Amino acid sequence: xxxxxxxxxxxxxxxxxxxxxxxxxxxxxxxxxxxxxxxxxxxxxxxxxxxxxxxxxxxxxxxxxxxxxxxxxxxxxxxxxxxxxxx
Length: 87
Known about the structure:
Layout: H1 5-30, H2 35-65, H3 73-86
């Protein structure tokens, strides 16, 4: 989990947004919505979760592998690679 209070707050905001998306998905399923809107909601949830995962992973890599005086360019490459994979 991010140690920076701002990053932690941003992660919590994302989790709450994802919770809202999941609750909307549940209501759609209970209401017997058509398949297309449900698939759109699922894609939105997947994107939100992937965004959260990328953000937490980026924070972790920066906190554990880089120092403020010596930012490691390989970390930036790894972060970019993971972000492109999560899209």
